[in-house]
Amino acid sequence: MDEYLSHIGLTQVQRRVVDFLISHKGYSNEDIEVNREFKIDLLDASFNARADIALKIEGKIFCIIKCVMNSLESWERHSIAFGRVVESYQIPYAIITDSENARVLDVVEGKLISEGLDSIPSRTDARKFINEKAFSPYSKEKAEREKRILYAFDAIGCSTNLD
Q: Which parts of the sequence belong to the Type I restriction enzyme R protein N-terminal domain (predicted)?
């Protein structure tokens, strides 16, 4: 585990979260993508948005995780916008964590659904969800607004580099 974590260039928060996901929530290395880049196209600009951690089950990203040092609440709107527009479907869950606390968001509904590391869905729960639910796209009419929210976070230089 330590060798794997040291080779993929993670921040300290990411490292602790990945370790927690594997050791306590049953995810495997193959389920976890770190620093995944997504190209976002606006009418007048393009930029890359990065997921600190993406949990991928059966070919679908089930959850994106934002790793921060503090002010978890301040990243909620960003995380919801991110989950709505980076894929052809809405990523169902977004989590913001500092590796000690976590806020789990329902991206589709745009609201907080639980708090605490223990409330992060296990791999078993994720597989059950994927088999029972359809992954739906976000409204094309509203997508430009969500992309602009991501662009604003990018433009003001909200650094996520937490080394």
A: 13-121
Q: Is residue 163 part of a domain?
A: no
Alpha carbons 84 and 26: distance in angstroms, whole number: 26
Strand ranges across the sheet with 60-67: 32-41, 46-57, 60-67, 93-97, 102-106, 111-115
The first and second tokens of residue 74, run together, are 């301040």
Total domains in the fold of the chain: 1
pLDDT at residue 5 greater than cutoff 50: no
The alpha-carbon radius of gyration of the chain (Å, integer) is 15
Q: Can you point out the beta strands (E) in 19-125?
A: 32-41, 46-57, 60-67, 93-97, 102-106, 111-115
Q: Which residue has the higher pLDDT, 21 or 158?
A: 21
What three-state secondary structure class fits 48?
A: strand
Which residue has tokens 């306590």? 24
Query: Which CATH number fits the domain that encloses residue 115?
Result: 3.90.1570.30
For 104-137, write each residue's pLDDT tens digit: 999 999 999 999 999 999 999 999 998 888 899 9
Residue partners of 1: CB distance under 8 A and separation at least 6: 19, 22, 23
